[in-house]
Write a structure and sequence with these properties.
This protein is an alpha+beta fold. It has a single domain, classed as Aminopeptidase. Helices cover 34% and strands 21% of the residues. It contains 10 helices and 8 strands. An 8-stranded mixed sheet has the order 1-8-2-7-6-5-4-3, sandwiched between helices. The protein is globular and about 55 Å long.
Length: 309
């Protein structure tokens, strides 16, 4: 059978590039963006984040920044692994693949790391990759212990934004939330299904919860698109699903039903993306489609950190 090639999380500027290469595109979600110049947690838009951050501060939580260029973060690998394992117990979906990074990918020395601490331990961490052409950062991992004080993540991110702004970073991309569509999106079968998923399937993937959390700190939302070659359809949408959740619905249900109180342990946290089970992507064997896709992908994806420094 004919294979398909699918790209996700494309910016509006990248859509014409893909369409010129023969892809069909559709809006698939929205990305939270925070403009850091003049960012102020006292702004009324951020009052929910400010309130919970103050609660964490009163509980003794404080934030430490590790700027790019430091290798000291490597000594925190055991803490990061322990926090991630604890964090996974509260997740509805387990560990995602494909779009989720790793604390120590190549080039990690160029990332910002922020730690939320108490006197006893590290409660949470967040990491940001540089987007050099825009003097921006991209928030990748945010993890916290399940019993950390309420508001820990809000305190961590508000303090991180302040430190990033002081260092000259202009904006922070907080990641895409799937199925959050703009008001101008045309009604199609795919967009209708995404709207239903956003309203009804929060139990399988916390789209509404993520939207609420990121909206507390975002200054705007930008649409993101998916591109399908040779045409969009259910098959391509299933390919994206399979990439994000390699274990499928059965894996999600196993994760949801596994009870820490029953003595089950979480699987070991992958140390790198290379250790994860590879996702079976549609289009991986279709050389003709891949040859058409690559120019569009190459043109729309920012150059590597080494090339843009």
């Amino acid at each position: 059978s004919r294979r398909q090639t699918v790209a996700v999380a494309i910016t509006r500027a990248g859509v014409p590039v893909y369409e010129d290469a023969g892809f069909q595109t559709t809006e698939c979600g929205s990305e939270a963006v925070t403009e850091l110049a003049g960012f102020n947690a006292d702004d009324p838009r951020h009052r929910n984040a400010r309130r919970s951050a103050r609660h964490a501060s009163r509980a003794g939580v404080f934030v430490e920044a590790i700027a790019p260029g430091s290798r000291d973060v490597l000594r925190l690998a055991p803490d990061f692994a322990g926090i991630t394992e604890d964090w996974l117990r509260s997740r509805k979906t387990g560990h995602l693949g494909f779009i989720v990074g790793d604390p120590f990918l190549p080039g990690f020395q160029e990332c910002w790391y922020f730690l939320a601490r108490t006197a006893e331990r590290i409660e949470a961490f967040a990491m940001f990759y540089p987007v050099y052409p825009e003097r921006a950062v991209y928030m990748d991992l945010t993890r916290r212990r399940t019993d950390s004080p309420n508001g820990t993540m809000d305190l961590l991110l508000t303090q991180a934004f302040r430190a990033l702004a002081e260092s000259g970073v202009r904006r922070a991309y907080l990641g895409m939330v799937p199925c959050v569509l703009s008001g101008e999106v045309p009604a199609t079968f795919e967009t209708t299904m995404m709207q239903v998923a956003f309203q009804r399937l929060n139990g399988l993937y916390p789209m509404r919860s993520e939207h609420f959390f990121k909206d507390k700190l975002a200054t705007r939302w930008e649409p993101r698109f998916a591109a399908f070659h040779p045409h969009r359809g259910l098959r391509g949408m299933l390919a994206v699903y399979e990439a994000l959740w390699p274990d499928g619905v059965a894996g999600i249900l196993r994760h949801k039903l596994r009870s820490p109180r029953a003595g089950h342990e979480n699987p070991p946290v992958p140390s790198s993306i290379a250790d994860r089970r590879p996702a079976a992507l549609w289009g991986s064997r279709n050389e003709r489609a891949a040859s058409k896709a690559w120019p569009a992908i190459k043109a729309s994806v920012p150059r590597s950190m080494e090339e843009t420094k």
